[in-house]
Design a protein that fits this description.
The complex is a heterodimer of chains A (342) and B (393). Chain A is mostly helical. In chain A, 73% of the residues lie in helices and 2% in strands. Chain A has a single domain, classed as Orthogonal Bundle (ABC transporter involved in vitamin B12 uptake, BtuC). In chain A, the strands form two sheets. Chain A has a two-stranded antiparallel sheet. In chain A, strands 2-3 form a two-stranded antiparallel ribbon. Classes of the chains: A mainly alpha (342), B alpha/beta (393).
């Protein structure tokens, strides 16, 4: 096993940026502030709204709301993280969410395929589109941000084509009921998303593959010279993003009991915002699963609290955008301070 | 026989005075209380009476809109002589939105079939720049009219002025208030969104028996939305002074992510606020999913508008919470839009309000929702003959 293949453990996760040595010299408080800043902000926001709304906010229905209604964003963001973690941008992710939901609904609801067959066919198609993205971006060499902009537009058009531009319905009751099934008052998809988060954490932080992905993101050329199969790793990231996005679309359609072909595009920016915010937490400077989970639910908690206070609409966008700008800026400043410290 | 001893008299007198004082106090107390409470009780009774009358009025309105719509359109004819060969540039806010494509397709076909007028559709894809390009194209190619669909006229003041300067008439579609040409356009052809809002409010008052608390969710990025949202609040206030409505604005890009949490946070913060009134059913779709997932279908009532195929079917799913979906007849609008084009091109005064057919779909008549062609749901196609009778060759 090469040094790159050694499992990543806690602070050692920052080795690729030369962080371990400098971490040792920096004051503990600064390190922890950087690492757990978003987590603390999440706790702080929850506490603030609990103080402001003592009777309604710190309740079990609120917990159910926060964890039960934004599962699609968590799926989409974790999926997006796989391509970001290898230095690729997948702008087709939102369209893939819309396409996944539309295709599954058309197959199952309109064409009366069995639910399992519709799900498998949709997953396979999502995988295929991931392969197309990967082939064009990695093996042909066109920048992924450009290719996925094109495939995203193509997928948006295909979604309209297969649905006839209409909201489609008819998803089998068993599938809708399954997706609506609750455990501890929270629908099952949340637990699937949680499981995906754990799997992503394991892959990125505990396996040689995760170390290689980090190395590819840090310096593609050096990684290639070190003998890593860079192209394969980049392709894998893009394929994982597309496949998970297709799955997220199916969860969305199953939750709504119908598919809106245009729904997916609205997940693109929130997922990017959460992924970048997540990269400032737990393992700062790196896309990581736990940080992403914390970021998604920090944003959801803040927005829910604002809604409880009676603010809907623009205050949510201000909170979303403001949190991202603030977190990334603070993270950048702390990182610069660390470099100066070195 | 001895009478009662005089010694007893002072005691009796004292008791008597005390009784008198107590009686006086009680009387004064009652009088004061009555005088203080009278206006309150009277106001409360008056309010209750007003609400009862309002519930009756609201019920009558909802019942009338449960039936198939009837013709309340114009009777003034329009001459189609000399219209053949004229051109209209139809700027669509987005042809990717099914109903907008439906309208543009039908207007194109009707205008050509009955008037020989050629309609050229420009898909603005939601972009003001693309719409500006549509105006520039109309001016450059010397079109006879522009129909600007679902964009607010106020955004295009310069373009409208430029078009007028080039001798091009400007029609707007579905910006909120039928016949409202305050944006400088020559005609506005629209569903009566204020009436839609009033029906939503009346259903809310009727269904809650005048005791409802609700949330109106507008989407102010859609030009017609504020008109409809304001009408809901005003009508509810008129027919149910004791009802309580609050309004939130959630715009199109946030529908998917914000509506589910907004629905649930509304219920969590105030479990008695059980009526959710989003302006559009497309807006409510993510919320219906959240209601279903939370198992709250029996606790809330969602009342909305558009009767979009694929969404309105949720009326048959009690878990979704959808209880009302008002529909507007889209083919009827296409005929009205074509009629407006003919009138504007021929120099005939435009019609202010076509009273395009609306129908209430709720759990009482959800059996009408069959198939994806929504035309038959309305139970009336007589508008076709009515319009063609107005068009004189």
């Amino acid at each position: 096993m090469s040094k790159i293949d050694e499992p990543v453990k806690s602070e050692a996760a920052t080795v690729a940026k030369g962080g371990a040595s400098r971490l040792g010299r920096l004051p503990q408080v600064t390190q922890r502030l950087e690492r757990y800043g978003v987590l603390l902000a999440w706790v702080g926001v929850a506490l603030l709204f609990s103080i402001l709304l003592p009777k309604t906010f710190p309740t079990w229905p609120t917990v159910r709301l926060i964890f039960g209604t934004q599962t699609v964003i968590l799926f989409a963001t974790i999926g997006l993280m796989f391509s970001l973690a290898v230095g690729e941008f997948d702008l087709s992710m939102g369209s893939m969410v819309g396409f996944g939901g539309s295709m599954m609904t058309v197959l199952n609801g309109t064409n009366h395929w069995p639910a399992w067959a519709a799900v498998l066919a949709t997953l396979a198609t999502s995988f295929l589109f991931g392969c197309i993205n990967a082939f064009l971006a990695v093996y042909i060499g066109v920048q992924s941000i450009i290719i996925t902009l094109g495939t995203g537009t193509l997928l948006a058009g295909l979604s309209l084509a297969i649905t006839g531009g209409q909201v489609v319905t008819g998803i089998s009751t068993s599938l809708v009921n399954f997706i609506s099934t609750q455990f501890l008052g929270i629908p099952l998809p949340f637990y699937f998303a949680l499981l995906l988060t754990v799997v992503a954490w394991f892959i990125l932080q505990q396996t040689p593959l995760g170390r290689r992905m980090i190395f590819v993101q840090e310096n593609r050329e050096v990684a290639r010279l070190a003998g890593l199969k860079v192209k394969r790793i980049r392709a894998g990231g893009l394929i994982a993003t597309a496949t998970i996005a297709g799955f997220a679309g199916m969860v969305l359609a199953g939750t709504n009991g119908a598919a809106n072909p245009q729904a997916g595009s609205y997940y693109l920016l929130p997922a990017f915002a959460a992924a970048f915010l997540g990269s400032t937490a737990i393992i700062p400077g790196r896309f990581n699963a736990i940080g992403t989970f914390v970021a998604v639910y920090f944003l959801v908690t803040g927005i829910t609290g604002l809604q409880y206070l009676g603010y809907a609409g623009w205050p949510e966008q201000v909170f979303y955008g403001g949190s991202l700008v603030l977190a990334v800026t603070i993270s950048h400043l702390v990182g610069r301070h660390q470099i100066k410290g070195n | 026989m001895r009478r009662a001893t005089p010694i007893a008299r002072p005691d009796a007198g004292s008791r008597s005075r005390k009784k008198s004082f107590a009686a006086l106090s009680l009387t004064v107390g009652i009088a004061v209380t009555a005088s203080v409470l009278a206006p309150v009780v009277s106001a409360s009774a008056a309010s209750s009476t007003a609400t009862s009358a309002g519930v009756i009025r609201a019920t009558a309105v909802v019942n009338s809109y449960r039936k198939p719509p009837v013709w309340k359109g114009p009777s003034a004819t329009v001459s189609l002589k000399g219209l053949a060969g004229k051109r209209v540039v139809y700027i669509n806010v987005s042809s990717g939105i099914p109903v907008l494509k439906y309208w543009s397709d039908h207007v194109t076909a009707l205008a050509l079939k009955y008037g020989g007028v050629k309609v050229e559709v420009v898909d603005a894809k939601g972009s003001v720049d693309e719409a500006n390009k549509g105006f520039a194209m109309a001016i450059a190619t010397k079109a006879d009219a522009v129909l600007l669909q679902a964009f607010p006229a106020s955004l295009f003041q310069k373009q409208i002025a430029d078009a007028h300067a080039a001798g091009i008439k400007v029609i707007t579609g579905n910006t909120g208030v039928p016949g409202d040409v305050s944006g400088g356009q020559d005609a506005e052809v629209s569903f009566d969104y204020a009436q839609v809002g009033r029906i939503q409010a009346d259903w809310f008052v009727m269904d809650s028996k005048g005791k409802g608390k609700g949330l109106v969710v507008s989407s102010n990025d859609v030009p017609a939305s504020p008109t409809q949202a304001n009408a809901i609040v005003a009508e509810a206030k008129k027919n149910c002074p004791t009802c309580n409505l609050i309004t939130k604005d959630v715009q199109i890009p946030q529908w998917q992510t914000s509506i589910p949490t907004l629905f649930q946070s509304t219920i969590n913060t105030d479990p008695t606020r059980t009526y959710l009134l989003p302006i559009y059913d497309g807006q409510s779709l993510p919320g219906l999913g959240a209601i279903r997932a939370a198992g709250a279908g029996s606790k809330v009532s969602v009342g909305t508008f558009n009767a979009t195929p694929g969404i309105v079917e949720s009326l048959n799913d009690p878990k979704s919470g959808l209880k009302l979906d008002i529909g507007g007849n889209n083919e009827w609008w296409a005929y009205a839009g074509t009629d407006t084009i003919f009138r504007v091109l021929s120099g005939t005064a435009p019609i202010k309000n076509y009273n395009i057919g609306l129908r209430v779909f709720d759990t009482s008549n959800s059996n009408l929702i069959k198939g994806t062609d929504d035309g038959p749901w309305y139970g009336y196609t007589g508008f076709r003959g009515r319009f063609t009778a107005l068009w004189k060759k």
